[in-house]
Amino acid sequence: MLANVVSGALWGINAFRVDVEVDVAHGLPQLNIVGLPDKAVRESQERVRAAIKNSGLSIPSRRITINLAPADIRKEGAAFDLPIALGVLACLGVFPVESLEGWMVAGELALDGAIKPVRGALPLAAACRDLALKGFILPAANASEAAVAESVDIIGVHDLAQVIRFLNGVEGIAPAAAADFEAQRQGMANGVDLNDVKGQEHVKRALEVSAAGGHNLIMIGPPGSGETMRVGLVSSTVPANAHAARSFRDFPVMDSLGMSVTLQAA
Fold first, then answer.
1. What distance in Å separates the CA atoms of residue 247 and residue 104, rounded to the nearest whole number?
2. Under CATH, what is the fold of the domain 2-167?
3. Which has the least CB within 10 A, 40, 51, 170, 217?
4. Is there a contact between 194 and 236 (Cβ–Cβ < 8 Å)?
5. Element (H, E) at 35
6. Average pLDDT of adjacent 10-residue blocks, the chain of 266 residues
7. What spatial distance separates the first Cα and last Cα of the chain, rounded to whole Å?
8. Which residues contact 242 (CB under 8 A, 6 or more apart)?
């Protein structure tokens, strides 16, 4: 039997569609992953087996082939654990294959079936929206971050068993709400304005020019000289961005990709 699960992978700070194609057939028992997987993806077969077993299910002795398409682009990371597991379970009849239609899926599996957060949740959610899919199933820890991508249902899940119940229609899960970015922006300044900083007018001028024009800026100095504090106060000098622009310029991209696209202190 064949099942297809839509997932995604990162390309820089953007994401592209990856189809996780799973075929379960009679033959010598083995599980093969093809489609240029890296070591973390190849190791997913052990996490998937353990997570399924510890969720009260089992994988029969079958020949399982998993293809990550497009096959000519290297796939990295553990975010394919959940789509691989769901593809296998769909082929085994644990839930209808049709229930996966229209959903993008990503998530790392722990051995006990828990679903761990992944990197790139926001770009993946944006790709899901651009593909006109109906929703994105991902770790609950990433849900509020991914919910910034509007016009797509973000379903945060805690473990494999919960996803199975959701796909079987046994358990309903309300779409996640977006994080409160305005509260975070106000919290960064903590009631202090950049104008309250005394001296170093050339530094403040550089920060203002950088913020106004969207220019890169690096500040170098010994610990305790105030670089990080001044960068944090820049938010008090600029108006709040539109929701879509703010979502890609604040912490979601930093949290997702482990990098910063905003002003930094070094």
1. 20
2. Ribosomal Protein S5; domain 2 (3.30.230)
3. 170
4. yes
5. none
6. 96 93 94 95 96 95 96 95 98 97 98 96 94 97 90 96 97 85 54 70 84 82 77 68 49 43 38
7. 54
8. none
Q: Tell me the C-alpha distance between 106 and 181, whole Å.
A: 24
Structure tokens at 151: 């016009």
Q: 249 is written with which tokens?
A: 């310029």
Angle between helices 81-91 and 160-167 (to 10 degrees): 50
Residue in the structure block whose two tokens are 């997570």: 51
User: Can you give the residue ranges of every domain in the chain?
Assistant: 2-167, 181-257
Rounded to an integer, what distance in angstroms lies between the CA atom of residue 34 and that of residue 50?
20
Helix (H, G, I), strand (E, B) or coil at 87: helix
Q: Which amino acid makes up residue 84? A: I
Angle formed at CA 35 by CA 34 and CA 37, multiple of 5 degrees: 80
pTM: 0.74
Structure tokens at 48: 């998937």
Tell me which amino acid residue 4 is. Answer: N
